[in-house]
Every structure is written in structure tokens, then in C-alpha cells.
Amino acid sequence: MRALDAGIIVCDECHKLEYLREDEVQHCTRCGARLHARRPDSIARTWALLITAAILYIPANLLPIMTVSMLGKGMPATIMEGVVELVQADMLPIALVVFVASILVPTFKLIGIALLLYSVQRHQPMSARQRILMYRFIEWIGRWSMLDIFVIAILVALVNFGNLASIEAGVGASAFCMVVILTMLAAVTFDPRLIWDNTFVEEDEESTAKKIPADRS
To answer: What residue range is the signal peptide (predicted)?
Structure first.
């Protein structure tokens, strides 16, 4: 049984429980925020953010993210080119961190959120436990996606010695930063309570399907 079935809703801002009053705009008695049984247009907003992030993910990987100049010479490099250069320079741990933070994490977030949305909308055979674990993991790893951007920002600020040595951020860094922000917002706008709503719908459909043959007999 859900809390909503018992007429209880929770404030998204301060998490105070309130009793649902029908046909009335409610506000939290603690913080004054407007109350909703479920986040309005959660699926549509999450899809919009996710699709935008997926579009920006292409230039984020194809455009140069950083240019390292030594003695006046330097070539812009994409994320993967930077990883390859780190491997060739025998800096495997740093290359692994950059690859995980800049390639694996954003890709997993895009695919993971899309799977959550699809499974909730299409009532796919996936347990609520699996969905909620995936959601919590996506929410947890979101902050680590900014690691690459932080490294670039620090390097640009510190390494600026004119023609001797300098580092400049590329257009790909801006696109990558937008991808990270949009995927984090997508994880926030997705309402995890829809996972449990979906589970109850599936259970009701299964119980109905079992009752029909019994009634006919």
C-alpha cells in the first residue's frame, strides 16, 4: 500500500508529511511550498532534459576540450585523444580517471535515465528494487561527472606562462559541462515515486488477469 492510497503526501522541499485534501491547492504548513502528489510533468521534463543532453553529448566528444601549448606549439585534443595521450605518457591512473569520469559516467547516466523512463512508461518487466537502485546510483555518480571540468578549470587558471606553457579550454568543454548539468537536472526532475506507482499498476494487472479465468470457471 502506498502513502498516497492512505491520503498522505510529502513536501518535496522539507519532506514533511501532509494529509491530501481533494480539490484544493495545498501548501506545506512548515515551509509554505506548494504540495503535489507527484512532481508535475516529471516524465516530459526529464525526457526533454535527457534528449538535450544526448544531443550535446555529440559535440562534447567530437570537439576539442582542451589545448595544451608548450613552447608555442600545441594541438587541440578531444576527450578520447586526451586519454590516449595520457596512456602514451605512462599516466594510466590519470587516464583511467578521465575515461571513467568523462566517458563512462555520462554514458551510463544517459542510458540509465532513459531506461528508467522507458520502463515506467511502458510497464516493462523490471522490479522496483532494480529501478530504485539504478536511480540512486545515477544520482550518486552525477557529481563525479564534473571532475574533468574542475581539472580543466584549475589547469587553465594555473598554467599560463605565455609562449612557454599554457592551457586553454575548448568548445568541447562547454558542451560537456552542459551535458553534466542537464543529466543532473534530469535525475532531479524524475520522480522516483513513479517507480512504485508503476509497480502497483503491474501488480493490479497481474491480479486481474488471475481473477478472470477463476471467475469464468
So the answer is: none
